Amino acid sequence: MPLYGASESFIMKKKLYIIPLFLTLFSFVVIYLSLQLDTSPEMIVGDSMQARSFPIFLMVINLLLVAILSLQFYKTYPKEIELEKFPTWSSMLLFLIFYIIILISGDMFVAIPIVMFLMGLTWGQKKVWVSLTNAIVTPLSIFLLFDYVLQVRFPRGWLTNIYYG
Amino acid sequence: MIEAISAMASVFTDPYLLTLIFATTILGVIIGVLPGLGATTGAALLLPFTLTMEPVQAIAVLSTIYVSATFAGSITAILINTPGTSAAAATTFDGYPLAQKGEAGRALGIAVVSSTVGGVFSVIVLCIAAPLLARVAYEFRPPEYFALTIFGLSMLASISAGGAVKNLIGGIFGVWLSTIGSERVTAIERFMFGNYDLYEGLSFVPVFIGLFAISELLVQSKTVNKIIETVALKAVKLPTKEDYKRIWKTILRSCGIGTFIGVLPAEGATVASMIGYSEAKRWSKNKEEFGKGSIEGIAGAEAANNAATGGAMVPTMVLGIPGSGTTAIILVGLMVHGLRPGAYLFTEQVEKVYQIFGSMLLANFMFMAMGLYAARLFARVSLIPISILWPIVFALSVIGAYALSQSLVDVWIALIFGVIGFFARRHGFAVAPIAVGLILGEMVETNLQHSLKMYDGQWWMILAQPLAAFFLVLAFLGLCGPYLYNLITKHKN
Fold first, then answer.
1. Which one of A30, A78, B15, B51 has the lowest number of neighbouring Cβ atoms within 10 Å?
2. Same domain, A93 and A130
3. d(CA B270, CA B85)
4. Distance from CA of A122 to the nearest CA of B (A)
5. Does ipTM top 0.85?
């Protein structure tokens, strides 16, 4: 018997099945994409599997598991998930800003300090100089460590061009 | 045998390795006391730093982080009621209440001793069990490996975080991720969408950094305004004779439980500590003390979680099946450094294997010393504002993701998997099954292909192989056993 009564709103029930629906959709998309894959000649594959078989097999299992999950959701009402607050969404937005800055400058060491500085502020750091110092000293230290000790070469951009010459 | 002992002893006499393990133990303890970071995230972040090291040094660094961070989670569990790692969650049940009674030093002393005994015991078991298991694994053919990986995947159902079904869905998703790229037999491109950076498949390192470090960053962003209450600590006290009398049986029992749980594929320190704690309670004469500051509770949880570290290394090194999230990263470390895990590792690279075991043993003694003499100092590290700490983790994550292949694509992969990992965790899906699935995926598919070729496409012949059938039956019982048991008992009633 479901734990929630019939009086529960339809919207609540719909919310409940978003995850199983998403997973079902994902499985069907993968199956569709797998069916579009080329087939190999018999002499290569022999008695083994075609490249498409394994992902389809996985998604069929996934669909079975999603069905069990839906049944579990129906029987036991899952915990309500609180909507994330500003620091979480702003951090994801900062990932996007990080990507855009790299596209423009081509330089990780321009993007990292900017994102670190903004992340510090959005996570509640009230002293701007602390956030700024952290945003400059940390990437610089990591850069020097990777450049001198690990000999990793970073992509050329506004700042690294000056350093590499 | 002599060769093995001398290889282990060489770790204790190599000044470079000694310094490296000492420094890494400090780092591991710091990582362990910082709530949210933990052994898995720490190992994921440090993996790129080991690239230029010798294989033994690199794996020594990763395994030292594993053992020391697993122990250090108890420091914050006892002093601020916040487990530094999930493996120390059970320690809070009695550690914090004891600290509130003004006995924080005693609680920490018991945690240090229990963790060390657990850790050392499991390394000894590792040294004995791994070569024996390797001898058995030497006989494994594709059907056995296929069945073993299925068993490993089925064990994901019982990982502590998430539910059984959710963990299995996570594992299947991980296995599917392993199919991205060129298929190994036919070279057909799968799910690449024209991106040739994915031709060789998804790199483990950026995916792991995303799943463990970046997703944790997003999870921690929810705790921005959390107020932490600390308990004063004067000095760590070693257990008294009376304490030892009360806890020695608990420690020994938890050593066995922890090591056994650790050996099971995909199980880890968190499960071990919970079972260690509940068994300590079950066998105790003072059950009423549990939850109010029982020293047996602390010993039970701490001995078990550190005993799981050595146990988890057994399937990782012998079978290539990770025993936990952190050992999944150690496994990637082994592969990156050209040490292919499996039975051959124990015949062709014996010296290196025992040097790794030796460094784990050394790390256990080092964290003991640090726990006894510097716990107070390390506890202060946990008070670093998260607005400083997590931007640093962000920088380490993106640079670490870039470092291995020196490709920006890996940075985007890390960020994408960070967001995927966050949303997965938000809806109750643990990320460790995805990581384990990704590692085992290739093994499952390749061994299934080889098995089908061996038996001319007759898949049921896999079931006719005794060892393969044994593993498949174990997997079936692991998945359906609890439901069948419930059905039978219901029917009887």
1. B15
2. yes
3. 9
4. 8
5. yes
Nearest CA in chain B to A143: B399
Q: Find the domain containing B128 and state its range.
A: 2-492
Residues of chain B contacting residue A160, judged by C-beta atoms under 8 Å apart: none
- The verdict on residue A1 lying in a domain is no
A71 shares its domain with A91: no
Of A22, A46, A75, the residue at which a domain comes to its end is A75
In a shared domain, residues A49 and A112: no
**Percent with pLDDT over 70 in chain B:** 95
Residue of A nearest to B402 (CA): A154
- φ, ψ of residue A64 in degrees (nearest 5): -65, -45
Q: Which residues of A touch B51 (CB under 8 A)?
A: 150, 152
| Chain CA centroid to CA A41, Å | 37
Q: Select from B165, B186, B455 the Cβ nearest to the Cβ of A68.
A: B165
Q: What are phi and psi of B456, to 5 degrees?
A: 50, 40
Counted domains in chain B: 1
Q: Report which listed range, B113-117, B385-389, B484-488, is most confident.
A: B113-117
Give residue-wise pLDDT tens across range B388-425: 988 999 998 999 889 878 889 999 999 999 999 999 99
pLDDT at A10 over 70: no
In B, which residues are within 8 Å of A79 by CB distance?
428
Q: B276 near B244, Cβ under 8 Å? A: no
Residue A153 lies in a domain: yes
Does position A147 have pLDDT exceeding 70, yes or no?
yes
Residues from chain A contacting residue B149 (CB–CB below 8 Å)? none
By Cβ distance, the residue of A79, A150, A153 closest to B51 is A150
**Contact flag A65-B172 (C-beta cutoff 8 Å):** yes
User: Choosing among A26, A105, A123, which should be mutated to test the B contact, i.e. which has the most B CBs within 10 A?
Assistant: A123
Check if the beta carbon of residue B319 is closer than 8 Å to that of residue B84.
no
Residues B201 and B206: their CA atoms lie apart, in Å, by 12
Which of these, B50, B51, B52, lies nearest to B27 by C-alpha position? B50
pLDDT tens sequence across B175-203: 999 999 998 888 889 999 888 888 988 98
Contacts of B186 in chain A (CB under 8 A): 40, 44-45, 50-51
Contact call for A87 and B224, based on CB within 8 A: yes
Residue A31 neighbours by CB distance under 10 Å: 18
A94 shares a domain with A64: no
**pLDDT > 60? residue A6:** no
Count of domains forming chain A? 2
Domain closes at, from A33, A51, A75: A75
Q: A58 lies in which domain range?
A: 10-75
Find, in chain B, the residue whose alpha carbon is nearest to that of A71: B165
C-alpha distances in Å from residue B52, one per residue of A140, B55, B449: 20, 9, 35
- Does residue A128 share a domain with residue A92? yes
**Pairs of CB atoms within 8 A across A/B:** 168
Query: What are B89-147's pLDDT values in tens digits?
Result: 888 888 888 888 888 888 889 999 999 999 999 999 988 888 888 888 888 889 998 99
Each residue's pLDDT tens digit, B200-218: 889 888 998 999 889 989 9
Give residue for tokens 């550690």.
B95
Instruction: Select from A65, A91, A108 the Cβ nearest to the Cβ of B165.
Output: A65
Structural domain contains residue A94: yes
Q: Which of B3-7, B150-154, B283-287 has the lowest mean pLDDT?
A: B3-7
Eight-class DSSP state of A1: -
Residue A62 and residue A25 in one domain: yes
Strand partners, B181: B190
Interchain contact, B403 vs A115, CB within 8 Å: no
CB B57 within 8 A of CB B20: yes
- State the DSSP code for B157: G
Asked whether the beta carbons of residue B390 and residue A69 sit closer than 8 angstroms, the reply is no
